[in-house]
Design goal:
Helices cover 49% and strands 20% of the residues. By secondary structure, the chain is an alpha+beta fold.
């Protein structure tokens, strides 16, 4: 019995390792975890990656995957792709040449997620458009029903600025529904930054990030005041 149990555990371990194996990812679009980039894989194995890091620094690279790896151009940079269900883990061989595809504050190594249908870029844009129609028509209950799942279901693939705007849109809708407690809960992740001055935001974030974040912070301050009553 003990031997059978050991063999069973060994089989489970082998299965888990096989699930995350170096291979060519299935063709399609993947989103960099945190929403700050994308990986596109074609049926031919050709791929391209674009990411954006702090202060609007970017990475851009492309190549062809063979047996889970791609040697970029004539450089010493080798990119590996480990596939596990709907995720692709992208790593490199650590070559200095790999850094040449990125700005100083950007990176492309990490996890890329194949989004569920409701979390693709097109689907999120469609949900936001439907939300606005419902909100403008003062159908706040429907607007909340449309927007709330985007925040919850797409949390890992939304970029930080889009997520912050969605929080403000949802919080204001909750305020219109006289649910101030829900409004404050929705805005809580932004409250610390909202308590800073504009100069405080500029001191705590790189210049390009502060510029795009300040309008969100100002909206959050206004909405927090509303919800606090």
């Amino acid at each position: 019995m003990k031997l059978a149990r050991i063999l069973s555990l060994a089989l489970l371990l082998c299965t888990g390792l096989a699930a995350a194996e170096t291979a060519t990812p299935q063709a399609g679009d993947y989103i960099y975890e945190g929403g700050s980039g994308s990986l596109r894989v074609q049926a031919s194995g050709h791929f391209d990656i674009t990411t954006i890091g702090a202060n609007a620094h970017t990475c851009a690279l492309d190549g062809t995957i063979a047996r889970g790896r791609s040697k970029l151009d004539d450089s010493g940079c080798v990119v590996s792709f480990a596939v596990n269900a709907d995720k692709v883990e992208v790593t490199t061989n650590g070559s200095d040449q790999c850094r040449g595809y990125c700005g100083m504050r950007a990176a492309f190594e990490g996890t890329y997620i194949r989004p569920i249908p409701s979390c693709t870029e097109k689907a999120v844009a469609g949900s936001r458009k439907a939300f606005k129609r419902q909100y403008d028509a003062k159908d706040y209950a429907a607007a909340q029903t449309t927007l709330a799942p985007v925040l919850s279901d797409c949390d890992r693939t939304l970029d930080w600025i889009t997520k912050a705007w969605l929080r403000n849109d949802l919080a204001l809708t909750q305020y219109k529904l006289n649910d101030r407690a829900a409004c404050l809960r929705t805005l809580q992740p932004l409250a610390e930054d909202a308590a800073r001055t504009d100069d405080g935001i500029k001191e705590n974030y790189p210049p390009a990030d502060a510029e795009i974040f300040l309008p969100v912070v100002r909206a959050t301050r206004t909405n927090l005041k509303l919800c606090r009553g």
